[in-house]
Design goal:
Layout (H helix, E strand, L loop, with lengths): L9 H18 L2 H4 L1 H9 L14 E5 L3 E3 L3 E3 L1 E5 L8 E6 L5 E4 L2 E4 L3 E9 L6 E9 L6 E5 L4 E3 L3 E8 L9 E5 L5 E3 L4 E4 L3 E9 L9 E6 L9 E2 L4 E5 L4 E2 L3 E2 L8 E4 L4 E3 L2 E3 L4 E9 L6 E9 L3 E6 L4 E2 L3 E3 L2 E5 L11 E5 L5 E3 L4 E4 L3 E9 L6 E9 L3 H35 L5 H22 L11 H39 L1
Parallel strand pairs: 2-9, 11-17, 19-26, 28-35
Antiparallel strand pairs: 1-4, 3-7, 5-8, 6-7, 8-9, 10-12, 12-15, 13-16, 14-15, 16-17, 18-21, 20-24, 22-25, 23-24, 25-26, 27-30, 29-33, 31-34, 32-33, 34-35
Length: 508
């Protein structure tokens, strides 16, 4: 058995160092962990330092001039020539009296009217294009109805006819409710059905502006014991709620009441069945009233709070210099599943000589290099996200593909391959004795699998990272290949040197 020399201790030290480094890189944010691949990709970017600028000559807007309420249309700027380098635009919506809501290049219809969408080139402010957008209500082509109760109910009880239409902006003002016999039952403009006499009657709806009727539903009213509502209360006088949050309204009636149907009224809340939500902060009253006994009601005060941002994630992307790209980022809400109320952010570039970013989030690459782009929440500058963006002479897609390949080869496959090599050398010089060698080899292979899994699991807690099982496979394949190549090399050396050792023994 060979004796350990001082330099043999290099193998376990490097092995432990690489294993620790892999876990540290797994826990680092994406824009930092992939720095080595970005550097290598930049070395292969051999174009000139600055771009050839191609100025825009004309600009038009591609998109539909008709927008339905509650629908979203996307509008695209089209520049000529096609290879215009600076395609930044300023977007305005003129004559907008809350008919539409704009987000980037998309418009959402809110109410009927007409607005003018204007795109202006920021490279040449003389280039503008305007498009008149007609916001219309979508035509009603079908109506469906359902009852909230059985089709046979006791006299004195109430029910409701719920209506759905093919349109996204449908509301009850679009239809009229009808009863075929008002002596048996009546139905109000909200679809609530009040029963008066024993008998049967059909209920249905008709669209006010279209010749569309729903299928009639026959309701049977029978005699029975009816206990009226004598009490209606609520567990709280005041309720806290966040903007956009939906809360169920659950009033308390006298326990023996036969009919616990209720209606919710508020000028400020969005009401969907028995759920309420609010679109802006403030204090708003909401009244709950019994349908069968309107004299019983309860008013609650809702305190609507803002949803704040807890962090910002910024996507990495490279940019071919001279061109522009829209920065993709996301405000992470402090309340899960609720959007941040105030979406206003500020953009900053730490090196405007390499790339600038305007107030609309368009990044313009000026020369080769890398730049840190920050997105800062306006309400609290402590909340910010940063991404390192490469400005390259290559087409951005080619550069990102190159960066991706290098990251897999170096950051995953290559590092694990070297780790596997040093792992085998460690056990060869320190644990390759008797049965221990088989146990130690097994442990080394298990160590590689565990290391590959943990390096991906740690990415769950890192910013701008997404774990992937495919990366576990790449990592472990590199580790196994390094280990196997080392084992084969050691065996070949051992086979070659064994006859020479025998010769030396015989000669002595």
């Amino acid at each position: 058995m060979h004796k350990n020399k001082w330099y043999h201790f290099i193998f376990p030290v490097v092995f432990l160092f690489l294993s620790t480094l892999i876990l540290i890189l797994g826990a680092m944010p994406g824009n930092k962990s992939s720095a080595q691949s970005k550097i290598l990709a930049s070395l292969l970017d051999v174009g000139p330092e600055t771009p050839t600028i191609i100025s825009p000559e004309s600009l038009v807007i591609h998109g539909d001039s008709t927008l339905y309420v509650n629908h979203i249309n996307t509008y695209t700027p089209i520049f000529t020539p096609e290879n215009t380098t600076d395609q930044r635009i300023k977007i305005e919506v003129r004559n907008n009296q809350e008919e539409v809501q704009r987000k980037d290049c998309s418009l959402k219809g809110l109410k009927p009217g007409q607005v003018t969408l204007v795109f202006t080139s920021l490279a040449n402010e003389n280039l503008t294009y305007s498009l008149d957008i007609n916001v219309l209500r979508e035509p009603i082509t079908s109506l469906t109805t359902t009852l909230t109760s059985e089709e046979t109910i006791t006299k004195g009880m109430t029910s409701r006819l719920e209506v759905k239409a093919n349109t996204l902006d449908f509301h009850l003002d679009d239809v009229e409710f009808f009863s075929s016999d008002n002596h048996v039952l009546t139905i109000d403009e909200q679809g609530f059905i009040y029963t008066h006499e024993v008998g049967k009657a059909d209920v249905y709806v008709k669209a006010k502006n279209y010749d569309i009727l729903s299928r009639p539903i026959e309701l049977h009213v029978i005699e029975g014991t009816f206990i009226p509502v004598t009490m209606l209360t609520y567990p709280f006088e005041d309720v806290d709620i966040y903007v956009g949050e939906k809360q169920q309204v659950t009033p308390i009636f006298n326990q023996d009441a036969s009919d616990k149907t209720f209606v919710i009224r508020s000028d400020d809340a969005k009401i969907d069945s028995h759920q309420v939500s609010f679109s802006k902060t403030g204090d708003y009253p909401l009244t709950i009233t019994s349908v069968s006994n309107p004299t019983k009601s309860k008013t609650i005060l809702y305190h609507v709070k803002e949803v704040k941002a807890s962090s910002i994630t910024v996507s990495y992307s490279s940019i071919q210099y001279g061109k522009t790209t829209k920065l993709h980022y996301q405000l992470i809400s402090e309340i899960k599943d609720l959007p941040v109320t105030n979406q206003d952010v500020i953009f900053e570039s730490d090196n405007p000589g390499i790339a600038t970013i305007d107030a609309f989030g368009y990044v313009l690459g000026l020369k080769k290099g890398s730049v840190n782009i920050s997105v800062i929440w306006k309400k609290d500058p402590q909340i910010k996200g940063v991404s390192t963006i490469a400005i390259t002479s290559m087409e951005s897609k080619k550069f990102d593909n190159l960066n991706h390949v290098i990251r897999k080869l170096i950051g995953h496959f290559g590092v694990f391959l070297i780790t596997g090599v040093f792992g085998i050398l460690t056990i060869y010089f320190f644990f390759f004795k008797g049965r221990k060698k088989y146990i130690s080899i097994t442990l080394i292979f298990l160590h590689g699998l565990l290391l590959a899994i943990l390096s991906e699991v740690f990415q769950v807690f890192a910013g701008n990272r997404t774990p992937a099982w495919s990366d576990v496979g790449i990592d472990y394949f590199g580790y196994i290949l390094g280990a196997l190549l080392t084992i084969i090399s050691v065996l070949l050396i051992h086979i070659k040197t064994k006859p020479e050792e025998k010769k030396e023994t015989l000669s002595s």
